[in-house]
Design a protein that fits this description.
7-stranded mixed β-sheet; alpha+beta; binds phenylalanine; BirA Bifunctional Protein, domain 2; 13 helices
Length: 342
């Protein structure tokens, strides 16, 4: 009969396993490799078990007992070594290098459009205007009809409208807020309404989405003088008291009379340059006295109340304020542009 493992040989394998485990310390990978080496399918201890079949039946129980013991001992040792290794990972303290230079957090700033909106809102708030808002997805009725722009009106072509359906549009201006507010309230009314507006247009000076601020003041005996006073004060607060302005006759279906406001060119001060096309003036807003037809739509008596309204593009104000020549820069979100407004 072939020589088979005896007690000494088994003890040797076990001792070798324990020694190697001791050496592996807290190295999980190494411990796992040892498990394979001794207890795996072709492991050293597993192999010893295969000899059981070769010994005489009388010796078999004794050898079996020894091998079971050996396997249990190694298994337990691997178990506690694994335990220790995992524990070490959990409790290991990170070492902190206090000399490492700190990371400077990148702190953003308010978008220039937000900054100008806030400034416009602040100036009008100080004059007693209340801030209100309206929906960007708007009924055709409020965007056009209630503002004296019927279905076949040529003014509808001027505004390249995004239609959602026959009756629903993306608002092309903030003026529908006028109609909504007047319909809900009775005079006196003194509101400004900033927000996003949409027109199907895109080039150096047009983007499909841009911002406007609408203003509306309605009451008894509100006159064009009030309109001039409020907008003059606004221009002086926004661009400086030295900047001149003029009211130029214009047309809007929802105001009568209407005026566009120009300010003296911020680049040349009025002497004429490329920015103002050598006119010395820059248009900044549209305005006028609320048309009686609009009052009738919202159920006001035009004999009883009067009022003025104005609307301006916020990006346009920002472009003039900071001499920016391409509107699209506002929407590209390039930090190199944006970080100049901190
Ligand atoms: N809604 C007009 C526009 O978008 C501006 C405007 C508002 C004009 C209020 C007069 C009165 O051009």
């Amino acid at each position: 009969m072939e020589q088979v493992a005896d007690r000494r040989e088994i003890e040797q394998v076990v001792n070798e396993a324990l020694r190697e485990l001791e050496e592996a310390k807290k190295d999980l990978k190494l411990i796992d490799a040892l498990r394979v080496k001794y207890l795996g399918r072709k492991g050293l201890i597993t192999n010893l078990f295969k000899q059981l079949g070769k010994v005489s039946p009388e010796k078999r129980p004794e050898l079996g007992r020894l091998l079971n013991e050996a396997r249990d001992t190694v298994e337990r040792a691997i178990g506690s070594a694994t335990e220790r290794a995992k524990e070490a990972i959990l409790t290991s303290k990170e070492t902190i290098d206090v000399t490492t230079p700190g990371r400077i957090p990148i702190i953003g700033s308010l978008h220039p459009v937000t900054q100008v909106t806030q400034e416009i809102v602040r100036i009008f708030s100080q004059m007693g205007f209340e801030v209100v808002e309206g929906p960007e997805v708007e009924l055709d009725y409020y965007n056009f009809e209630a503002l004296n722009i019927p279905k076949d009106h040529p003014a509808r072509d001027m505004q390249d409208t995004f239609y959602i359906s026959e009756d629903v549009v993306l608002r092309t201006h903030t003026s529908p807020i006028q109609a909504r507010i007047m319909e809900k309230r009775r005079p006196p009314i003194q509101i400004i309404a900033p927000g996003k507006t949409y027109r199907c247009d895109s080039d150096m000076t047009h983007t499909p989405m841009f911002h406007q601020v609408e203003g509306l003041m309605v009451g008894k005996d509100i006159s064009f003088s009030h309109l001039k006073a409020v907008l003059t004060l606004f221009v002086h607060r926004m661009f400086g008291p030295q900047v001149g302005l003029r009211f130029r006759p214009s047309f809007f279906p929802f105001t009568e009379p209407s005026a566009e406001v120009d300010i003296q060119c911020v680049m040349c001060g009025g002497s004429g340059c490329k920015v103002c096309s050598y006119t010395g003036w820059l248009e900044i807003l549209g305005s006028g006295m609320v048309d009686p037809a609009v009052f009738e739509k919202v159920g006001y008596d035009p004999e009883e109340v009067t009022g003025f309204a104005f609307g301006m593009g916020i990006e346009r104000i920002a472009m003039l304020k900071w001499s920016i020549d391409d509107l699209r820069l506002f929407f590209e979100n390039d930090v190199r542009f944006l970080e100049q407004f901190t």
